[in-house]
Design goal:
Blueprint lengths: L19 E3 L12 E3 L2 H4 L13 H17 L3 E8 L20 E3 L16 E9 L5 E5 H4 L4 E5 L5 E10 L4 E6 L10 E2 L10 E6 L7 E12 L14 E4 L11 E3 L4 E12 L2 E8 H14 L5 E2 L2 E5 L5 H5 L10 E6 L4 H4 L7 E5 L2 E2 L3 H9 L6 E8 L2 E8 L1 E2 L2 H4 L11 E5 L2 H6 L9 E6 L4 H4 L7 E5 L2 E2 L3 H9 L6 E7 L2 E7 L3
Parallel strand pairs: 10-15
Antiparallel strand pairs: 1-2, 3-5, 3-7, 4-15, 5-6, 6-9, 7-8, 8-9, 11-12, 11-14, 12-13, 13-16, 14-15, 15-16, 17-24, 18-19, 19-20, 20-21, 20-22, 22-23, 25-26, 26-27, 27-28, 27-29, 29-30
């Protein structure tokens, strides 16, 4: 875990205080006065006092805006303490990731205890933040904050604490909702803003419990919008469009609000990018978090529309691969790598190597643009897909289906529960993990608690290169090899960080 050192301002100059005044005035009799001790309280004259400053009205107004926002938001921001009583329910730790990757994205929240995926004896505790979103006692936070939690305690700014329960979690967006078991009186819900109207350069405040310090407020600006990274979410199902900010955030801020100066929550803090040049925070746009929260409150889960394609960024392809796609291609677009058999896209006539340039009236410049747009569409709705095939533009209408659990993950293989969720290693994901773009394999996106894979020490972001000495080109190939002997011992060649090692999954 990256070290987060407190920032101190140090004045290295020497501070001196005049406590004695040398009087060298001659008296009429020619006598001199020696060193006279003067009380410190009287040593300072009016000329030694710093001049009174008059702050410009604009600065005063800005200061009042910061203070007013922090005061208004404080009662709605909570600390969330969780306890996992069973070691097998502990979320996968991220500490085994290589330290020499400067741009690695880490969650602010981690359960305590040892790393490496090994269960620790006794209860495991963790702390995060959250924000009250209605007067019924619903609190918005991150999924990773409450994952695996048996007990949830919510503490308010005034020191009151209440027991909570997890209403639902959506790992695809890292959004979760906690409900207070007993709704307190005078519950204040935060005002939710419109993240689509947010502009780069706007002042923002991050509020939460970083490093266990409740109700900490830091300020910054919106540095960028729509940020994505292959390492943020490798499953590829729900690549989020993050708000990037330079407001100082630390472990414990996870799930806390990012607010504009109108006191409106415009994001939920969830990630940090640390490196030699400093750190930037990333927040889930509140419009997306709000949609997920509403679904979790209503149904306990989030349902997603499904296009049925595996896609990569056009600009990430080698020149020879781009040349095979034909002419009249834009500089930036999304390329269909695979289509799901009998899925919505295949039924509409979409094929591998089609270059998607537009969906409805939305220009497509990357694979994440496709995922983000489809994520916002209702299940059963129809979208117009514009693509280039062999140099010629085409348009088809695709009716979106519902993304099923089978299409999201491969949680088990046969009757012997292995407990792996896999994703094909695309060039984008490979580069995000510091691997050559042409690397082939299957990436682990999730390890089921208590599974054989967890007992073997496998972890998310491990890249499977071979299974039982057979090379695997993608997730489908990996599943096929595992199905050959689902209950038996499996020998995996795995890449983790800069090291390649062999891992044995025990028999069922």
């Amino acid at each position: 875990m990256t070290n987060f050192a407190p920032h101190f301002s140090a004045n290295r100059g020497r501070r001196t205080l005049m406590t004695a005044v040398l009087l060298a005035a001659l008296t009429a009799g020619g006598r001199t006065s020696g060193l006279v001790q003067v009380p410190e309280a009287h040593a300072q004259t009016d000329s030694a006092v710093t001049p009174k400053m008059q702050a410009p009205p604009e600065a005063r107004a800005l200061s009042r805006a910061f203070a007013g926002t922090a005061k208004a938001l404080g009662p709605s921001v909570v600390r969330i303490d969780v306890e996992a009583k069973s070691p097998k329910q502990r979320p996968q730790a991220r500490r085994d990731l290589p330290d020499d990757v400067p741009d690695i994205f880490r969650h602010f929240f981690e359960f305590g205890g040892g790393g490496g995926g090994m269960p620790s004896p006794g209860p495991v505790h963790g702390t995060g933040s959250g924000v009250v979103i209605d007067t019924k006692g619903h609190i918005l936070t991150n999924s990773h904050v409450v994952k695996g939690a048996d007990d949830v305690k919510v503490t308010f700014a005034d020191g009151r604490d209440f027991e909570g329960e997890v209403v639902g979690r959506d790992e695809e967006t890292d959004v979760a909702v906690v409900r207070l078991q007993k709704t307190p009186t005078a519950l204040v819900a935060a005002r939710l803003g419109d993240s689509d109207k947010l502009e780069v350069g706007e002042f923002v405040l991050a509020v939460g419990s970083p490093l266990g310090m409740d109700q900490t407020v830091t300020a910054g600006i919106v540095s960028s919008k729509g940020k994505t990274n292959g390492r943020m979410r490798m499953s590829g199902n729900r690549v989020r469009q993050y708000i990037q900010t330079d407001a100082m955030i630390n472990p414990g801020n996870s799930g806390g609000p990012l607010s504009n100066l109108d006191g409106e929550v415009i994001g939920i803090n969830t990630l940090i990018n640390t490196g030699p040049g400093g750190a930037y925070g990333f927040a889930i746009p509140i419009n997306q978090a709000k949609r997920v929260a509403q679904a979790l409150i209503k149904d306990g889960k989030m349902r997603y529309a499904f296009l049925g394609v595996s896609i990569v960024d056009l600009e990430r392809l080698p020149n020879e691969a781009r040349a095979k796609l034909g002419k009249n291609l834009p500089e930036r677009a999304a390329v269909v790598e695979k289509v799901t058999p009998n899925g919505p896209a295949e039924k509409a006539g979409v094929r591998p190597q089609d270059v998607v340039t537009k969906i409805d009236d939305q220009a497509i410049e990357s694979a994440s643009d496709v995922v983000a747009y489809i994520s916002d569409q209702p299940i059963g709705s129809q979208v117009k897909l514009t693509y280039v095939r062999e140099g010629r533009p085409n348009t088809v209408k695709v009716t979106l289906a519902e993304l099923s659990q089978d299409e999201q993950t491969v949680a088990s293989v046969g009757d012997g529960r292995i407990g792996l969720a896999l994703q094909s290693l695309t060039p984008e994901i490979a580069q995000g993990l510091g691997l050559p773009a042409e690397t082939k394999g299957a990436v682990i996106t999730e390890v089921a608690p208590g599974s054989r894979a967890e007992r073997a020490g496998l972890a998310p972001e491990d890249v499977i290169l071979k299974i039982n000495r057979k090379p695997v080109s993608d997730s489908e190939a990996a599943v096929q090899v595992l199905k050959e002997n689902p209950k038996g011992r499996q020998l995996l060649q795995v890449r983790r960080g800069n090291a390649t090692r062999f891992v044995t999954i025990p028999p069922a």
